[in-house]
Amino acid sequence: MSDSTHRDTEPAAPRVVLAVTGGIAVYKAVEVMRGLQHAGCDVRVTMTADAERFVGTPTFEALSGHPVADDLYAYPDSPIPHIFLADWADLVVVVPATGNVLAKMAMGIADDCLSTTLLATHCPVLVAAAMNVHMWRNPATQANVVTLRSRGIRFVMPQTGLLACGDVGEGKLAEVSDIVTAALDALAPAKQDMAGMRLVVTAGPTHEAIDPVRYIANASTGKMGYAIAREASRRGAVVTLVSGPVSLAAPRGVCVVPVVSAAQMRDATVAAFANADAAICAAAVADYTPASPADRKLKKGTDDLSTLRLIKTADILAELSHTKGDRVVVGFAAETNDLLKNAHEKLERKGCDLIVANDVSRADSTFGADTSRIAFVWPDRTEQLDTLPLDQVAAAICDRVATAVAGEGA
């Protein structure tokens, strides 16, 4: 066999676009590029003008073997660099990702070569954020992170430590090895162990009306349910996501059925479950609803608001479990004490196949957190996981559901 024939049959190197923005951690982007190259990746770079104030283009060009794309009108490899890079890439890695570029990504702003490339990108995107602690904690930044994660953007979250400005807190760029590992994980093809499965996922809270402007609710954000729906869809499942009121974008490829009340969630979930193989009930459904909601806003001065008669809402998890037959039903138990004891009791009471239990009194596992520390509870055993990012928790849940639906036990 000739050398040329051998080269033609070799698999193509994974193609990574490294999007470098203007933060003090830019120099670590060079190390990320080298780590990806050592893993066999072909890397091209796009940079902002601010990034070039920290590390010049010759460094990236010499090490990558490609010109740096920093100008929409002067890129030697293509007259339309943002489309060229977006079509070329198997993965885009943004490192370091500043608060500014996160805001641009969330809003769809494209005003330079890097941000225009990101807007045109149709492959997976991994973001390694780095900025001052107060910029990271700013509600606008946190809202942008939530929005981007809900769209399937992967994050390597910043670390806590001493920052370049002298502050101490979150915002330090993650270790280079962690970023490279996350990039290689993102390049790995998603397993299709849920291909063809029909899945119902519930997410978020429900709002139980007291009057047209007041309601009973809880602190659920829907992040966990949305992460599960996104992961299941990525692995080939046909997913119906029955969602209470949340501020999250619909996961790509998932059918979202928006609801408000527990009664609406019950009706939508039961209807979707009729043609499903499994249901994952991650929603925090209100246990009670006002018996007689008013049709006008109640007034403190003229209406008696000191008492409110409540009635129980429909038990969605129990109803699905009672009618499931050979299908799989997974429930959640959000507890503040006696986690495993309460989860086992719920499993027996509801009759579902599996309970995912988490202690919401923990800061790393409460409503709205980007991590969770869950335990799987079956009738005959439990399995405790470490605290993990929500996307990894979702993957672990989908692993168990895929196995159970396939009839292999969980």
From TrEMBL:
GO terms for molecular function: FMN binding; metal ion binding; phosphopantothenate--cysteine ligase activity; phosphopantothenoylcysteine decarboxylase activity. Keywords: Decarboxylase, Flavoprotein, FMN, Ligase, Lyase, Magnesium, Metal-binding, Multifunctional enzyme. Coiled coil: none annotated. The active site is at 165 (proton donor). This is Coenzyme A biosynthesis bifunctional protein CoaBC. Residues 1-198 are annotated as: Phosphopantothenoylcysteine decarboxylase. Gene3D superfamilies: CoaB-like, Flavin prenyltransferase-like. Catalyzes two sequential steps in the biosynthesis of coenzyme A. In the first step cysteine is conjugated to 4'-phosphopantothenate to form 4-phosphopantothenoylcysteine. In the second step the latter compound is decarboxylated to form 4'-phosphopantotheine. Catalyzes two steps in the biosynthesis of coenzyme A. In the first step cysteine is conjugated to 4'-phosphopantothenate to form 4-phosphopantothenoylcysteine, in the latter compound is decarboxylated to form 4'-phosphopantotheine. It comes from the Bacteria. Signal peptide: none annotated. HAMAP family: CoaBC. Binds 1 FMN per subunit. In the C-terminal section; belongs to the PPC synthetase family. In the N-terminal section; belongs to the HFCD (homo-oligomeric flavin containing Cys decarboxylase) superfamily. It comes from Tractidigestivibacter scatoligenes (Olsenella scatoligenes). Pathway: Cofactor biosynthesis; coenzyme A biosynthesis; CoA from (R)-pantothenate: step 3/5; Cofactor biosynthesis; coenzyme A biosynthesis; CoA from (R)-pantothenate: step 2/5. CTP binds at residues 287, 297, 332, 346, 350. Its EC number is 4.1.1.36, 6.3.2.5. Its cofactor is Mg(2+); FMN. GO terms for biological process: coenzyme A biosynthetic process; pantothenate catabolic process. Residues 199-410 are annotated as: Phosphopantothenate--cysteine ligase.
